[in-house]
Amino acid sequence: MAKKGLTFQNLNLDGLVKSQVAIFFVCNRLILIHANSIFCEFCAFLRLHQSWKLVKEKSAMKICTTCVLPETFPGIEFDKSGVCNYCRKSFVRKTTAAELKVKYRNKFLALIAEIRERDCYSERPYDVIVAYSGGKDSSFTLKVLTLEFQLKVLAMTFNNAFLAPRAMENIKNVCRSLDIDHLMVSPNQGMLTRTFRNSIYADCYPPKALQRASAICNVCMDLIKSLVLKTAIEMAIPLISYGWSPGQIPIQSSVLRLNPAMLKQAQGAMKRCMQKIMGNDSVPFVLRERHFDLFSGDTYNICPLAFLDYDEQKILNEIRVLGWVPPEDTDANSSNCLLNALAIKAHQERFGFHPYAFEIAGLVREGHMTREAGLKRLSTPSDSKTLHSVAEKLGVLAV
Fold first, then answer.
1. Nearest-angstrom CA–CA distance, 107 and 216
2. CA of 258: how far to CAs of 151, 211, 292, in Å?
3. Which strand ranges, in their side-by-side order, compose the sheet holding 300-302?
4. Which of 141, 193, 226, 380 is an S-S bond match for 243, by CB 3.0 to 4.6 Å?
5. Helices 189-201 and 384-394: crossing angle, nearest 10°?
């Protein structure tokens, strides 16, 4: 059975394993290895060689002295003090951050009041649909919208075939504790694994998207957002909410009214990318013409964590009361998805920087995380057992 290998930075590795013969291209040289025992020894050598090279590269890499962005991050520049241009730009805006939080929280409260005054309010089953991954941030978002803002909530989970078993239990526990309705969509597993595998090598996402997330995560988020949007339009739910942290989304986008032109542009870009990655498998995920006909123009994207006080320890304490327990088999940057570790690895080795660097740099700048904690999170290695299990499931070779 053929397995396509990941391409490692500074160590190009493409493998084809058939019977007991392995063919590798290492540093542009073709190597044939016979017998499984020798193959395993060779893989061990590659792991050791790669780890040594990565340690050497990281130790010499220049990192912003204020945030966590490395010199390999696109468009980065350092001043004489080692401060990056992203930080310098944020210093200018920092004085208005607190004011913006108050402004957008009030905007959200006014929007809730407007929704409740509409004639159809009593007949509408839900005020908001929440993209619920089972992670800490989306779990806290569910809690806040349900208990603090007293909204009628529908939680919607996209089962990407790689949710941690503990995350699945957390989803059940949190929804039961909050007494809210929950909808889980579980697409064909074979189709999803093909999609994620193809996304590693596809060149359809713009550089800006890949600065904020890996190609695998971009695909997953696109599928989730489109399904949630379709459901909101079909059920006339006025609010769509995501559990994105303040480092993932600018506060100015935390209460955003959608319009037909915006939807068509976003769907067009997604359709072109998904067609390249998924082919005709993408059809069920994209909006049809009838969805644009049904769209009222009174739908908003809401990201409450951008305008609320964001404290990870407080979030963990509050969701534990709901029966949420941290998974032990996910990487340091995810509290729900097993695929994330491989997505990070593939992104780092293709582009030379961590896909969570941008988010964590934002959290550090805004004071939600210390720089030391951010650097530690970005450098914490993923569990090798989980990584290789996911790679095997995807049909790629992770050495």
1. 33
2. 20, 24, 12
3. 181-185, 153-158, 128-131, 239-241, 300-302, 255-257
4. 141
5. 100
**What are 29's strand-pairing partners?**
26
pLDDT digits (tens, 9 = 90+) for 92-138: 665 577 889 999 999 999 999 999 988 677 788 999 999 999 999 99
The C-alpha atoms of residue 225 and residue 242 are separated, in whole angstroms, by: 9
Q: Is residue 235 part of a domain?
A: yes
My answer on whether 220 and 118 are in the same domain is: yes
Length of the chain: 399
Q: What is the rounded CA–CA span in Å between residue 182 and residue 188?
A: 20
Q: Is residue 375 part of a domain?
A: no
**pLDDT profile of the chain (399 residues), mean per 10:** 39 35 36 39 46 49 96 96 94 72 96 87 89 98 98 97 97 98 96 95 90 95 96 96 94 94 92 93 93 92 96 96 96 96 94 96 94 96 90 79
Q: Which pair of structure tokens corresponds to residue 95?
A: 């004085």
Contact 237, 316 (CB under 8 A): no
Pick the last residue of a domain from 302, 320, 338. 320
Q: What is the pTM of this model?
A: 0.83
- 3 state DSSP class of 337: strand
- Of 45, 60, 75, the position where a domain reaches its end is 60
pLDDT in tens, 29-80: 333 333 344 444 444 444 444 444 444 455 578 999 999 999 999 999 999 9
Could you tell me if 154 and 255 lie in one domain? Answer: yes
Single out the residue of 326, 379, 348, 85 nearest to residue 371, CA to CA.
379
Which domain does 56 fall in, by range? 1-60
**Which of 324, 326, 353, 390 lies closest to 139, judged by CA?**
324
From the list 146, 92, 180, 137, the residue with the least C-alpha distance to 306 is 137
Same domain, 167 and 293: yes
Asked if residue 333 lies in contact with residue 130, where contact means CB atoms within 8 angstroms, the answer is no
What pLDDT, on a 0 to 100 scale, did the predictor assign at position 92?
62
Domain CATH number, residue 128:
3.40.50.620
- Residue 316 in domain: yes
182 and 291 inside one domain? yes
**Residue 157 three-state SS:** strand
Total number of domains in the chain: 2
